[in-house]
What does this fold into?
Amino acid sequence: QVQLEESGGGLVQPGGSLRLSCTASGPSFNRNAMGWFRQPPGKAREFVAHISRSGGSNAYADSVKGRFTISRDNSKNTMYLQMNNLRPGDTAVYYCRAQLGDSYDRSVYWGQGTQVTVSS
It folds into this structure.
């Protein structure tokens, strides 16, 4: 069983930066694939970024590519999302996602989300 908790959201002006954190309470964090999703107001949840178990491979949605950077520190059971040059369109609740890496257990877990608001 894995529990996830996001932090770092808040109100920021366009062009500003925020860093989100996601800390996992479960064991074997280094075997979990991790990612960030977001849900803008009135819209469905959408993919933002993904990072592999070792942190050596990542992927981004086209809308955030070049502005956001995903990373992880397995020694701290923590994943990060550095968000630069934020736009009003980035306003959303951001969710942490974890997927277990065992072949017999690929369960997915979600955090409760953290609000990011980009506004003048």
